[in-house]
Amino acid sequence: MKKHKRITASFMALLLLFSALLPIQAFSSESEPLTLTVSYDAKCGEPSVFTVNAGGGSGNYLYLLNNITRDGEDGQYFIMDPSRLPGYKTDNTFEVTFYASGVYYLHFYVMDKGSSPIVTKRKIIKVSLNDPEYPTVETVADQIATQCAAVCKTDYERALWLHDWLVDHCEYDYSYLYCNPEGALVRGTGTCEAYHRAYTMLLRRVGIASGRIEGNGHVWTAVYIDGNWYQVDVTWDDNGYSDHTYENYLYFGLNDTIMNMVHSDHSPNDGYISDSLANNYFIKSGLIHNWSDALEDSIQTNLQTGAASFDIPVTSNMPAGYQDVIYNLAAYQLSTQEWENETHTVKINANYSAGQMKINASYTPIHTHTWDNGTITKEPTISSDGIKTYTCTICGATKTETITITRLQTPTAKAVVNANGGFTISWNAVSGADKYDVYIDNGTGYKLLRTVTGTSTTTGTAHYGKKYAYKVRAVNSKNSVITSAFSTAVTATNTKKLVTPTAKAVVNANGGFTISWNTVTGADKYDVYIDNGTGYKLLRTVTGTSTTTGTAHYGKKYAYKVRAVNSKNSAITSAFSSAVTAINNKKLVTPIPKIKVNSNASFTLSWNTVIGADTYEIYLKTANGSYRLLKTVNANSATIGGAVKGKTYTYKVRAVNSKNSTVTSAFSSELSGIY
Known about the structure:
- With 675 residues, the chain is α+β, with helices and mostly antiparallel strands.
- The protein folds into 5 domains: 31-129, Immunoglobulin-like (Sandwich); 137-285, C8orf32 fold, CATH 3.10.620; 413-493, Immunoglobulins (Immunoglobulin-like, Sandwich); 503-583, Sandwich (Immunoglobulin-like), CATH 2.60.40.10; 593-674, Immunoglobulin-like.
- Strand 42 (648-657) and strand 43 form a beta hairpin.
- It is elongated and about 130 Å long.
């Protein structure tokens, strides 16, 4: 089965979580004078930049973001699998995007490779975020649970609704990075670990007990429904909706026996023994009849002969792993039905294996039945025949007969593009109908769009250039859901694009740029692109009508353009705005230095960090009163050796942006020291 490989890999990555920390702890030592500070401006919804500043060592530093943890309702947990994070690097900046409010802990390390022995320093940064637009993971879970409780009455309904929510809102994380509920619930991506933990978190909120099940390097969930444990694998059910119904709910409500066919090393967990199929999705919904009914005639033919055991060949195009699940569920359904021939009642025991339904039958003699007038036990619908059940007045045995119904007249539908870029679907009124089911196919098969009482309905803005198909059927809700056949499908394509925004860019007080634009009707977000000399690239996507950059290179021209986007209809965008340009004309701030006389014939110079600077030049005053460049460093401190006893040394410092050559601050004031 296609998902086996990816899920096994994700779980094995999670098992390496703690081993990823060992190299740091093995050689780490706290030895002054190495220092570590972190500067940042944390926010939700867009990248937050963390800058690690090291000092006091050799200047030969490597930097590491070892892990990110978060305070949760069960204690701290990893947001990302540490084993998947990059190792030490020379760059001292790290970008982290937070998608939920809450308290986070970022574990930074700096390694001084120039020291002997090698010295490392760790600093844990606590970040507390409270953004109404990005609620906490727990708040999101509460909101989902509230929605669930509003529409579901039983534990089965609640467990299924939450399963469907995760399938609809989460995509599997093939990077194997996001391994916790934060990924599944607010980022919309995660590994099997994230699916399981998010599902458990949601089940807890609706009062359903759950447990952890493992097998073949994968993790899924045990769910307690109506006094029994059931196996539910939300991750493997997230195959994307298709015409194959069995793919969407294959792993909802399995027992240990069937789950072992899929996970060969799974064995019953003492705390979560699963031996019931009563709340399996296909059994509970009756959909298992799609497969079991096709075998009934062959079984009945063999029972008429009195055969004690026989095999029924099963023909299916579904993958072998899927067959094992579906046809063992069909075996359960067949085994729980009542059977008889002309002279006996029959109990069968059905089991599926390798394309064969294996039947063992036991026979009990019966008398000649005397049947009553019968009762309708299933009302007929357009999608299935009804059932009338007769009961023997002597022994209570039952038999059934099929009931068919007459359909309503089929409506004729049409679809046109409306002024909003959506579609208006309309049809003629049908006698005997009091409502109409409208179905849509947007490329993944027909699904119910909505049910209306009138003869038309209107959709929201549609994907630009994409073809949609619709069909309609008439329904009589007062007469056991009597319906018509579906109308002939009608198609429509949206040809209306969004209006192009008008953008402008100005230099702000921080030496960065503020880019703004007008609101565009039909857009709920905007893509902002930047050209810094290497061609246009996406800078970020925002929901408002402006965004601000960090400090820009002094004297360098930047170009920006903006387009409007309708995220609910993915490919619907405007054309790009005309390009707007801006140049940063704000110079760097002058640093303020300090000097310390050391005991080893040296001075230590230090100064404040200057925004926009990536190096600092240290100048020494010569005997004739002029200054010469002594050294250039990329930290905000440096140690200068070779001092002569009783001699005065005078220095000054200036900040430099090496990426923009001549961009510097003014020189600091003079700073003198006598050794």
